[in-house]
Amino acid sequence: MPEDSGFTIRAASEQDVPQLMGLIWDLAVYEKLTHEVVATEASLHASLFGEPPAAEALLAFAGKEPAGFAVYFHTYSTFLARQGMYLHDLYVSPEYRRRGLGTQLLRRVAAIAVERGCGRFEWVALDWNTDAHRFYEDLGAEMMPEWRTFRVVGDSLRRLAEGGRGEGIGEGVS
Fold it and tell me: What one-character DSSP code corresponds to residue 153?
């Protein structure tokens, strides 16, 4: 996969929030998850540029056209006793795929992780996205089939925080 030198990658700025929000929406369409998008430009701005920021973002351009992005943040490993880096989203617009931009974005986040002394760099991919699986494995990533992601959101999160049970909270777990 050749790398296209026509791409520019830089840290997203506050002025980039509308473009980044558009790319996030494109990602949600691709992943068939538009029903989960509640982010607004205001909430995205607050999470990326508030104190402290919840995450960081890289924005990629083909000329002046937004072409892709990566959103990442720090995690922590008790086994390593070091921080790690978690790639939450990596997206390249369809017209710029297979030109090396995804590789460039992934390598840039990996370089930031190395610069910051992170002990690991992790992310997840949807089970049906076999193109992404191959892409990541070709870059040396190892799929971790023994791990499963768990999530609580909305009312379930509130109930868990309040010590309650129901709708999946604590059912079948002893």
Answer: -
CA distance 62 to 16: 15
* Domain annotation covers residue 68: yes
> By the 8 A CB rule, do 110 and 121 touch?
yes
Q: Please report which confidence band the pLDDT of residue 67 belongs to, taking 50, 70 and 90 as the band edges.
A: very high
Residue 60 burial by CB count (10 A; 0-12/13-18/19+): exposed, middle or buried?
Answer: buried
Question: Is 136 in the active site?
Answer: yes
The answer on pLDDT for 1 being more than 70 is no
Domain region containing 113: 7-143
Same domain for 139 and 151, yes or no, is no
136-to-22, 37, 65 alpha-carbon distances in Å: 25, 25, 25
Q: Among residues 72, 86, 96, 136, which one is catalytic?
A: 136
